[in-house]
Design goal:
Layout lengths: L7 H51 L9 E3 H6 L20 E7 L4 E7 L2
Antiparallel strand pairs: 1-2, 2-3
Amino acid sequence: MNKKGFTLIELLAVIVILALIAIIAFPNVTKLIKGAKEDTNTVQFKVIKDTLKDYIAEHATELNDGDEVCISDLKEDGLLENKKIVNPDTKEEYKGCFTLTWDDTYNQFTYEYAEN
């Protein structure tokens, strides 16, 4: 009698091999995902800072030391798309503001971000 199929031992061997591959691959995949989130966060924040620099250049005569420029101001001015800009780590929208400080040494504004 010729039975076609796999024995229980063969099936268990395949399951063990697949489990070993998963155990080896899981930490690498997790590390890649974490790195991608950090890279996304860095790039998004760089875009926001570049947009802030454009805003400062356009409104330099109106701005004073200690003024705050919020992300919503950048959106209202049309410099950022009016979409949610989400922090990939916390899954929450960036809603903070930049506090401007005039630097006499370089004759320009410096800024510091603070979440509301």
